[in-house]
């Protein structure tokens, strides 16, 4: 892909979401542990059982991986979820959304450099849905980009050396809009992802972030169904999606 | 101050920086500890001595607070600096700068809500310094604000209820520029502030953030001179400031 | 105080607890903010209001510092509590208790070096309360200390140089009991302290840690009553204390 | 394995070390990225390139995964290492060593419950190596365990209910030695593991922890050779191992 191009998927909504990394489990030698799940789910169960060396499973309700993890989540023993992690690539999301994501301090981020020129805008659905507003927004974005280019040209004409060219790009982007698209590689453990989904998939006010969080949840439910089984996805009156769990409390 | 107004200082540069919180020390009963500094500096020395219960000071080089803290910093025993913290109010900084600040995960932040309407722009010095560019930038910002208001009006006309009005403001701000001003209350311990200054006051490329970091350093040197004594502030060829210490290594 | 001596208070129970550091507030210039509390409580309120620049106080229920902080805690908006911190000196606590404290990763710790010789033991109340058990425990501790000294003597006889003497002390302490006393300087922000108290002042099983957490809570309620007003301290059937809040949820 | 038994390997030294979890990489659709490594190493390279969307590799020195990661480490751009993690099971290590491990706050831990009865001791090599000291230590440990059992029996005779039995075990273990064995599941990202190895594999004073860190390094070098290539393992005069890297600075 050429620098500056946004992948086509991102035009469709809150940005493309792809799972690109997760944890796998290698059972240790010398311990008689076995379970009916693998990868991160097996590692989490192993860690939970290691606390009491309870490798045998006398209680039917917690003998399966699903039952054991359900119990952990119900009693709030979430620290063992930290042993498994998941990494997402988020493409073409607005900088205003990545700004909110960066507040989640338990995650690790690699973001597209702000000095990297990216054309176009990741506009909210509310603007894209209405032809008149979309037209108005597109014009506004185009004008901002024109100003950016004009200012950048003037600054670069005076610049010499790599540092000054960086400074020029840094200064000119002050005129680009908040909806400027960015990419993010975002890694967190499953406890942090539960917290993230619990906070962000439920906030009715912030549509873009909520839709992103619901898509992340969908992919996490495919990756680790027993860790995210308590979340239910539903549709709001305006057609947007929301997810909630009885085991997630605010803050 | 009325909502939406930027304090006049912020017009002058990278935003106003004010120290609004710091740690004070209450000597504990029953321990014969005394030193020639107070507040956070005394607390840090106390914690450093508590590790060996070394309340007497047989070595002249580390008998003063300045000498003791210099030694800690030279040998890299920085964890004791975590006991003292400092809080800054940063007013009128561009959202693009607060975006970079949020990456520093060891700090605590309270930021002006993005749904709070703020007029004007916190433009980089490179744009403000040149009358033609300043004119061009001001026009671009004004146009973006006009688009913001037009879109907001259209969205609010269709909105009902508090949530939909929040959504309207959220969507419309996609058109505001990256230089939109914001305020930040930012708290960190002195180890984190040393790390922050070491990374940000030295990067030649990012002028706005560097000038902010140098101003933070100046105020930290007034608050806790013995903790920041090794940083030297100097002027670059372009008139901007930079700070560095022999005891700060990259990353 | 001479190295190796435990302050007399620590003989009485779970170790002496003293508040030795906290955050103070300096109102910034240029903002018309005033409140009826000071120090950390005022800083937290300031940060909470900065998010909306809501310096005027139209709603009576949140016009006072107590009312504003009560509201923050009720709605779970706890991140602003991170701007104020508190530091405790814990003296003469058992290493087994400091082991549990170290699990709280949001705190900063300076602990008495394990190579620092400390005599005596910080025994649990259950042992101290019964004369026969106390006698038995004292004998056991004395014997462990005798073994420690014998082994240390043998190792030091063979050691040469500072490193080998450190290694000798390190190896010999393998024989000292888990109740070996230690000191800890422990710093955290008020959000972390609420979380700590919420987890540790409520666990019926771990008496020593619970009593320590209740004493920490008492001193935090004196320091910042509006931040800890929702915690109630009560006495259990066995005479030990417990604290709980309706706003603290498990995990 | 029956509760209370230590696996035979742990008798041999600083405890058994086994890698039981790590990150794998799934290349995203729509991006033309390819490399000559897989799993965590590929994910780290992907994240590093995503910052500039630099999928093509014009510079030979950084065209291979080894070259790209070497460059990241040399320039100190370590945050991208956070996307890949590794989990170790540490069995039969002394509680005094797990105490030091818990200080590393960027890791996630699941430790064997202190209320879980474990017999035997994880004695330092310095004691095990000398027959007379080993005999002396074994006697001391046996005596401590006798006292533990005697006190536990007396406390349990008076206890009623699950909570009081937990309290009895909690109190009695005050008499067990610091060398009491424990197990730990320890997860961290590769940046944290580099920091851990850099601090702990180099400290001449703490032999047990150093040997553990060197063994962790060996397994990390097998898992992700390009991330740990700069560490060299060497033997000290006393036969113990040490590891160091020119790119790791103290603290």
From TrEMBL, chains A, B, C, D:
Reaction(s) catalysed (UniProt annotation): dUMP + (6R)-5,10-methylene-5,6,7,8-tetrahydrofolate + NADPH + H(+) = dTMP + (6S)-5,6,7,8-tetrahydrofolate + NADP(+)
Free-text function comment from the UniProt entry: Catalyzes the reductive methylation of 2'-deoxyuridine-5'-monophosphate (dUMP) to 2'-deoxythymidine-5'-monophosphate (dTMP) while utilizing 5,10-methylenetetrahydrofolate (mTHF) as the methyl donor, and NADPH and FADH(2) as the reductant.
Cofactor(s) needed for function: FAD
Enzyme Commission number(s) from the entry: 2.1.1.148
PROSITE patterns xref list: THYX
Free-text remark on how the cofactor is bound: Binds 4 FAD per tetramer. Each FAD binding site is formed by three monomers.
Enzyme class: transferase
Top-level taxonomic group: Bacteria
Sequence positions that bind dUMP: 100-103, 111-115, 173, 200
MF terms (GO), sorted A to Z: flavin adenine dinucleotide binding; NADPH binding; thymidylate synthase (FAD) activity; thymidylate synthase activity
Assembly, per entry: Homotetramer.
Homology family: Belongs to the thymidylate synthase ThyX family.
Pfam family, one: Thy1
Biological pathway: Pyrimidine metabolism; dTTP biosynthesis
Annotated binding of FAD, by residue: 79, 103-105, 111, 189-191, 195
Entry protein name: Flavin-dependent thymidylate synthase
Record keywords: FAD, Flavoprotein, Methyltransferase, NADP, Nucleotide biosynthesis, Transferase
Active site: 200 (involved in ionization of n3 of dump, leading to its activation)
Biological process annotations from GO: dTMP biosynthetic process; dTTP biosynthetic process; methylation
Gene3D superfamilies in the record: 3.30.1360.170
């Amino acid at each position: 892909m050429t620098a500056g191009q946004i992948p086509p998927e991102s035009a469709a909504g809150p940005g493309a979401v792809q799972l690109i990394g997760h944890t796998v489990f290698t059972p240790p030698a010398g311990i008689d542990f076995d379970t009916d799940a693998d990868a991160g789910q097996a590692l989490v169960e192993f860690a939970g059982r290691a606390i009491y060396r309870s490798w045998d499973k006398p209680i039917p309700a917690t003998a399966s991986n699903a039952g054991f993890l359900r119990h952990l989540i119900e009693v709030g023993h979430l620290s063992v979820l930290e042993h498994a992690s998941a990494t997402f690539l988020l493409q073409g999301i607005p900088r205003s959304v990545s700004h909110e994501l960066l507040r989640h301090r338990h995650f690790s981020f690699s973001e597209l450099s702000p000095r990297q020129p990216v054309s176009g805008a990741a506009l909210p659905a509310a603007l894209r849905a209405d032809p008149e507003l979309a037209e108005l927004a597109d014009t506004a974005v185009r004008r901002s980009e024109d100003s950016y280019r004009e200012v950048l040209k003037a600054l670069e004409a005076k610049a010499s050396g790599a540092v000054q060219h960086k400074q020029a790009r840094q200064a000119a982007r002050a005129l680009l809009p908040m909806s400027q698209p960015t990419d993010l590689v975002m890694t967190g453990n499953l406890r942090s992802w539960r917290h993230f989904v619990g906070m962000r998939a439920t906030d009715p006010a912030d549509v873009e972030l909520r839709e992103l969080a619901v898509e992340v949840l969908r992919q996490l439910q495919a990756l680790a169904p027993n860790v995210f089984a308590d979340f239910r996805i539903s549709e709001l009156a305006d057609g947007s999606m929301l997810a909630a769990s009885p085991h997630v409390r605010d803050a």
